[in-house]
Design a protein that fits this description.
heterodimer; A: 315 residues; mainly alpha; MetI-like fold; 2 domains; 13 helices; 0% strand; B: 309 residues; 11 helices; flat
């Protein structure tokens, strides 16, 4: 039953493309076939009320924006354009969606990657501390941290950080994008939920691998606890966290929306928040397709490199 | 037969009154025994989950305050008193007052009603739709299963909160749209869990037995599959409820939820944002209530999950 490797890879890529296409379609259906009239939204975003126009004007406008075609034809036209990298034009900003997103994505990518690094470091620190401690109390406290981390709304954490570190201590700016100092608070805001999720997974994986036969054998061979943990446990316990990487990418998008809105950073997250507030449909669609694309791509990469990292998994 | 009967009749009449009395008291003591046993078991459960018990108590309080906010505060959440604006927390105003002199604690209690109701609506949508999808896919199997599950895969590829935001863009802002959007956004996890449970239950002998004895598919699903598959789905619902509350609050915080002057946890925290420097309690205290609620639900959910294992 084993299929050859190139075929598996090709099939997996095909599947990823299919999921992406389907995500685009679902998003298109939600945004275009629901009760709201796209032309009314478009005009509203430009500051015109559709009620103030006569039937002729409306018909002309519908024709210019291609809204007079049937839903299937509209969908096919938009899909074809999207395949060529044209996701339409923003209703409010008047710019094409793709360059607009591209111009905003770099600052978001910077805080997202920083947040991911911080989150991984925090999660590993937590897991190591929990494994090495001999005190039951400390161990329980460390075990409770991820649960608390996941229960705190990040928008509230952001306000708390702002109150303490910007207003009371004055260490970091509360808004803007100037200098490395402006990166700190948004990064911490985004890192907390991610590190909580990762930390919880690592904690349970470390425990599970420490009790596995291979760790017992390593101990029986006379290795110290530290050696067992460093040489046997870390690698095996860290692999499963790769599988939630796709999930974390999704969380990053929502985290960026919150962090950038609060700390007034002109990134992708703020663009999404403004687009939703002004019902700027093409921008929302572009952002969602980008998020789905990132999720699909990360999962594809993880699926393809996982067998290389873990020889027990064969394709 | 007749001789026996006469023999019986000649016996001295037993004192039925006393026998009845004895029977009654033994039954009663057995019953009280059962009651004390249940109570004792409940006691051990509480003692082994002290933190979870407090969490359960707090969740119960929050749910009651959502149903009957007037039991917890006498004040009116919309009554403005400009003379008392921006007061720090005190005995009269536990959480202080806002710009318009409204009592913040009262607004948090009434805001809880909005948030909790919206979260329950979202949860109901997710659970009902998830159960339906999962049961259909798992029970029918074959092509229908494959199609539905691919659909769920696509659904999961769009991050839950982003999907919710997309839906809100299309159907408009407000508490109900937010609840619907979040319910739809998290539905796929419920569909997956239900399906895997249905696949497990479907293998059982009693399903085969029910089918052999001529039960219809509908009756098998309702009487056998659902009752046996619902446990893990219920635990998931409890564990997800905290996340749903947070999602509702997040969307309101971003300005997609209630319109002022209505109170809601996320929008209350947002209202206080402009006064962080002068009146930090306006954002921080309502936020603490949200944290406590989500944390309590998570602790409770984890305890239930552990106890069922």
């Amino acid at each position: 039953m084993r299929t050859s490797k190139p075929w598996y890879v090709l099939g997996r890529i095909g599947q990823a493309v299919l999921v992406l296409w389907a995500a685009y379609t679902v998003c298109y259906i939600i945004l275009n076939l629901l009760p709201a009239d796209p032309l009314a939204l478009l005009l509203q975003a430009k500051g015109t009320d559709i009620g103030s126009l006569n039937a002729d004007q409306i018909a002309t406008l519908r024709h210019t924006y291609g809204l007079d075609a049937g839903p299937v034809q509209q969908y096919l036209t938009m899909l074809l354009a999207a395949l060529h990298g044209d996701f339409g034009t923003s209703y409010t900003l008047g710019q094409p969606v793709l360059p607009l997103i591209a111009s905003r994505v770099s600052s978001t990518l910077a805080i997202s990657l920083l947040a991911l690094v911080v989150a991984v470091a925090l999660a590993f620190a937590l897991a190591f501390a929990a494994v090495f401690t001999r005190s039951r109390v400390i161990r329980n406290v460390l075990g409770a941290i991820p649960v608390i981390g996941m229960s705190v709304p990040s928008f509230w954490v952001a306000l708390l950080l702002m109150q303490v570190f910007s207003f009371s201590l004055g260490w970091f700016p509360s808004m803007g994008m100037q200098g490395w100092k402006s990166l700190v608070l948004p990064t911490v805001t985004m890192a907390i939920p991610t590190s909580a999720l990762l930390g919880q997974l690592l904690l349970s994986e470390f425990d599970a691998v420490l009790e596995s036969p291979q760790a017992v054998v390593a101990k029986a061979h006379g290795l110290s606890r530290t050696q067992v943990i460093l040489h046997h446990v870390v690698k095996n316990a860290s692999l499963p966290s790769l599988t939630i990487l796709g999930l974390l990418v999704g969380d990053t998008f929502t985290g960026a929306i919150i962090a950038e809105t609060i700390f007034a950073r002109q990134g992708l997250g703020m663009l999404i928040q403004q687009a939703v507030t002004q019902q700027d449909v093409p921008v929302v669609q572009g952002a969602v397709v980008l998020a789905a694309g990132a999720f699909v791509l990360v999962n594809l990469i993880v699926d393809l490199i996982y067998p290389l990292l873990d020889p027990r998994i064969r394709i | 037969m007749t001789t026996q009967l006469t023999l019986d009749l000649t016996r001295p009449e037993p004192n039925t009154h006393i026998i009845d009395e004895v029977r009654k008291t033994t039954a009663a003591s057995r019953r009280t025994g059962r009651v004390t046993k249940t109570l004792r078991r409940f006691g051990t459960l509480l003692r082994s989950h002290v933190v979870a018990s407090f969490a359960a108590l707090y969740v119960a309080l929050v749910l009651i305050s959502a149903l009957l906010p007037q039991w917890f505060t006498r004040a009116d959440p919309y009554a403005t008193a400009p003379a008392q604006s921006m007061q720090a927390p005190s005995a009269a105003h536990w959480f202080g007052t806002d710009k318009l002199g409204r009592d913040v604690f009262t607004r948090v209690v009434y805001g809880g009603r909005t948030t909790i109701t919206a979260s329950l609506v979202a949860l109901a949508i997710a659970v009902i739709a998830g159960l339906a999808l999962g049961v259909i896919a798992g029970y029918a199997g074959g092509v229908l299963d494959a199609l539905l599950m691919r659909f769920v895969d696509v659904w999961l590829a769009i991050p839950g909160l982003l999907l919710a935001i997309t839906i809100v863009t299309a159907i408009g802002f407000g508490t109900l749209p937010v609840a619907i959007a979040i319910g739809v956004g998290i539905c796929p996890t419920f569909a997956r869990t239900t399906r895997s449970q249905v696949l497990r239950v479907k293998q059982e002998d009693y399903i085969e037995a029910a089918r052999t004895s001529g039960s219809s598919d509908a009756s098998i699903v309702v009487n056998h599959i659902l009752p046996n598959a619902i446990g893990p789905v219920a635990v998931l619902a409890l564990l997800d409820f905290g996340g749903i509350i947070m999602a509702v609050a997040t969307l309101s915080f971003l300005g997609f939820g209630v319109k002022p002057p209505e109170a809601e946890w996320g929008s209350l925290i947002n209202d206080g944002r402009d006064y962080l420097l002068t009146a930090p309690w306006l954002s921080i205290l309502p936020g603490l209530v949200v944290v406590a609620t989500v944390l309590a639900i998570t602790v409770l959910g984890n305890a239930v999950k552990k106890e069922l294992k």
